[in-house]
Amino acid sequence: MLNSKVRVKPLLAALLFTLLASAVAADRRPNIVLVVAEDMGPDTGAYGCKDAVTPNMDRLSKEGALFTRAFTHSGVCAPSRSGMITGQYPLKYGAQNMRSIVVNPPRPFTEKLQEAGYHVMWPGKTDFQGVPEKELADDRKLWVNYSKQPLGKLTDKPKEPFFAYINDSVSHESQVRASDKEHAQNTAALKPSDRRDPAKVELPPFYPDTPAVRREVAHYHELVTSVDYTLGRVLDWLKAHDLEKNTIVIFTGDHGRGMPRFKRSPKDTGTRVPLIVRWPGQIAPGTVREDFASWIDFAPTALTVAGVPVPAEFDGHSFLPTAANPPKYVYSFRDFMDESFDKVRSVRDARYRYVRNQAPGVDEAGKVAYQEIGQTMHELRRVQAEGKLTPVQALYFNTNRAPEELYDTQTDPWEVKNIAGDPANAAKLAELRAECDAWIARCGPLADLHADELVKRGIITPRDEKYEVRLKTGQHESSNPAKKKNAGKATNK
Description:
It is built from 16 helices and 13 strands. The protein is α/β, with parallel strands linked by helices. The protein has one domain (about 30-485): 3-Layer(aba) Sandwich (Alkaline Phosphatase, subunit A).
């Protein structure tokens, strides 16, 4: 018995050492900070944009990697976020329709991080189309002062390792169209040199050149600068808490800018997003990544970095520090947008975008009451009524869209010249058409179902009451005078 006891002690010591080593190793796993700007495209200095002042975003790109081909799968927030939090295309479980509520959605990937010992902080927006939020995070409190309200002393250094989410809604569509007074409040931190002259901002070719349009475009770029201030505060907080060296910072947007023909579009304007990543010791400063990265990749990337096995049902890939097998294509879709029906599937490779329009008689603009509030949309409608839209501008209201579209994004970055009918592009058209078919097939039987059919089958529940009212009346809640006093605050409406 004595010998037995003597033999046990080294085994216990070895076991304790292994457990201790594992704990230490776990403590060394990198923290992950995900900073999301709502309704923001790749409109920073590092991406070549001259209309926004973004020193913190540009500095982050110099200290890490700038992804030039980063996309989301949907040009609107809820389906985009649903795919991000589940790691699966919303088409697989019926979450492709804006403002639908999925009855039995997949679980959020943050649960797996928590199970692995990560402290998850998620104080900001969820809006996951029914994905359970109860177990989303260990902490839903504000952890860094990125709002305009004084918080006093910032939160102490959190438990490590952690995953922290920051959502900045100041760049949201609702703030682009805010009054001048509200805009001044949203951008109060900006210096005079940060202000943009509406007369000098670049307009896309699908907008009429009017003072009202220029005002909103200038507003947008100043809001991007306000987001840059947010990022700066996050970076300062990490430095103040001695967390820089062991923290991955990911900055991105949930879809394109909150303006017509950007937001809600399955094309580049609606789905191309900024993606800047800093990971000291793992990503060389000044790296430029030209391989595809997508919002569907955030879940597998976070799990891989944390040392957690990626579930087989996940659709994306880990892009950090480098992608082992970078994808050849990225995919996007557009279905119900609140009260406006559409059905579009799209595939993009490094140069070409294929668009499949499956809703005959529906124009690209739709009848989304929330979009109609903005001055740019008012101007588009006004100039349309006057019969003065250019052919490119009129495309937005074309109810006879081609069943298939093909764009050369290299020569036509605004995607306004459909080259699908050119015989010279027949091979590329056939390739991307086949890839679109394959993607839809991989997503499964729910991918092509109308929202009404999804409701009938019990996959999703109908849109909530306010959208039913909007559908019937065409009025958005912000048109209610009693609610106008709260408009323009840095929260998503």
